[in-house]
Amino acid sequence: DGGITQSPKYLFRKEGQNVTLSCEQNLNHDAMYWYRQDPGQGLRLIYYSQIVNDFQKGDIAEGYSVSREKKESFPLTVTSAQKNPTAFYLCASSMGMGNTEAFFGQGTRLTVV
Amino acid sequence: AQTVTQSQPEMSVQEAETVTLSCTYDTSENNYYLFWYKQPPSRQMILVIRQEAYKQQNATENRFSVNFQKAAKSFSLKISDSQLGDTAMYFCAHRTTSGTYKYIFGTGTRLKVLA
């Protein structure tokens, strides 16, 4: 079945450590996205990529980094520079052009202690 | 920059009744796409309905319909015959057609359907 897989579902890290969240899709989608979800703030865009080897900052990119070396994969690294990293992270993908919706993974809950 | 506003943080409705969730947005473009997503307690995001701005006819999907008012930049979601399974967070989203395929979301409305 086609879809988006995020792993792990729950992640715990100590403060000051970098951590990488995985996102893989087999939908052959060109565009991929990372969102952060906090209570009362909806989904805020961290980074997005419209094509392999290219990505753009979203509204809250500080303290995060991404790569897009393969069409299927768009990993997100939460660095120690992110001041408040504990949150629910959602990865999404879309075909890009046209009236197409974004498809979402099941999310990763990151807790930094 | 595009923005999406959902002014109702929480709402409740009796089972079998009708409820309307509000969404307004700001854009300088003439054509764009609008979406409503549902996020149940499982936190999986599910597309409910979509609308293309150049289409004047309001989109409908079974019990879900929208009231799209382009001039007012309003995109409300009506849920008819509410069911307990409709209990969820609902997010309104906007996407441009200008070549950046990013989706901008509102802050969400938490809907609770009461038995």
Description:
The complex is a heterodimer of chains A (113) and B (115). With 113 residues, chain A is mainly beta. Chain A is 0% helix and 51% strand. Chain A has no helices and 11 strands. In chain A, a hairpin with a 3-residue loop joins strand 4 and strand 5 (42-51). Helix content of chain B is 0%, strand content 53%. Chain B is built from no helices and 12 strands. In chain B, strands 2, 5, 6, 10, 11 and 12 form a 6-stranded mixed sheet that branches. A 4-stranded antiparallel sheet of chain B has the order 3-9-8-7, with no helix packed on it. In chain B, strands 1-4 form a two-stranded antiparallel ribbon. In chain B, strand 7 and strand 8 form a beta hairpin. At the A-B interface, strand 4, strand 5 and strand 9 of A face strand 6, strand 10 and strand 11 of B.
Tell me the total number of β-strands of chain B.
12
Query: Low-confidence segments of chain A, ≥5 residues, pLDDT <50?
Result: none
Shape of chain B: globular
* Whole-number mean pLDDT of chain A: 93
Enumerate how many helices of chain A there are, as a single number. 0
What is the first-to-last residue Cα distance of chain B?
41 Å
Q: How would you describe the oligomerization state of the chains in this entry?
A: heterodimer
Q: How would you sum up the major sheet of chain A?
A: 7 strands, mixed
Helix content of chain B: under 10%
What portion of the residues of chain A fall into strands of 2 or more residues? over 45%
Radius of gyration of chain A: 13 Å
If helices are DSSP runs of H or I spanning 4 or more residues, what is the number of helices of chain B?
0
Largest sheet of chain B: 6 strands, mixed
Report the end-to-end length of chain A measured between terminal Cα atoms: 36 Å
Rough outline of chain A: globular
Radius of gyration of chain B: 14 Å
Order of helix and strand elements from N to C terminus of chain B: EEEEEEEEEEEE
User: What low-confidence regions of chain B span 5 or more consecutive residues with pLDDT below 50?
Assistant: none
Structural class of chain A: mainly beta
Strand content of chain B: over 45%
